[in-house]
Amino acid sequence: MTTLAEETVEARKNVSRAVRIVIPLVALMFVLQTYLGAVVHPGYKFADPDVAFFEITKEVGGNWLQMLAVLGTVLAWGIGDTMAAQAGISRVLFSMERQGHFPKIFARIHPQYKTPYVATIFVALITGPLIYLLPLKDITSLVNFGALTSFIAMHLSLGYIFLAKEKKPLAVIMPAIGFIVTAAVWWGLDKLAKELGFAWLILGFIYLAIITRGFRVKTTLPID
């Protein structure tokens, strides 16, 4: 949602409001879903833990409910999440171009839809073949590494802003909790995810060193 801020009317108010509404709502849904699953199927004994909820839906409603759950997952994750990720990544590339970190072609805006269409097409051309080149489990792990590492960096940055710049020590509590929880989940990632993630991170540092001429050029973004 935050990557679409520039395309949102009254972004400062509406995007922050959307985040405050969606995150608690999604968290509540996940907790409720897990609770109901545990009530129906106590314990942790499944034929395949990766598809545990599909097994639970079959116990509750038979094959038809299981197929309905599978279909809903395909539509929500395979289509909905893919479109959201596609939109988010393309906007990140667009913003990186504006800071001079990517080729100018990524900043091209569609004349009718007012969206960064070149960046969107580029992301599709890169991510599409990965489905066939790498196992889904490895791709998911790599994505989780990037997301969790970004969240860890975000919590550290917030802690620094609240403590060092705004002199609000009590405000550090929430970023500290977020850092601990996120770091614990990050620590539980499998070995391959960490190896691929660190390799990608090293490539990113090398690229950053090149475009900043050995970290001599500042790359900070204005925060208003």
From TrEMBL:
It is found in: Membrane. The keyword Metal-binding does not apply. It is a multi-pass membrane protein. Its main location: membrane. The chain crosses the membrane at residues 21-44, 64-94, 115-136, 142-163, 170-189, 195-215. One of its GO terms (cellular component) is membrane. Keywords: Membrane, Transmembrane, Transmembrane helix. One of its GO terms (biological process) is transmembrane transport. Residues 2-134 form the Amino acid permease/ SLC12A domain. PANTHER family: AMINO ACID PERMEASE, AMINO ACID TRANSPORTER-RELATED. This is Amino acid permease-like protein. It comes from Caldanaerobacter subterraneus. The lineage of its organism: Bacteria, Bacillati, Bacillota, Clostridia, Thermoanaerobacterales.
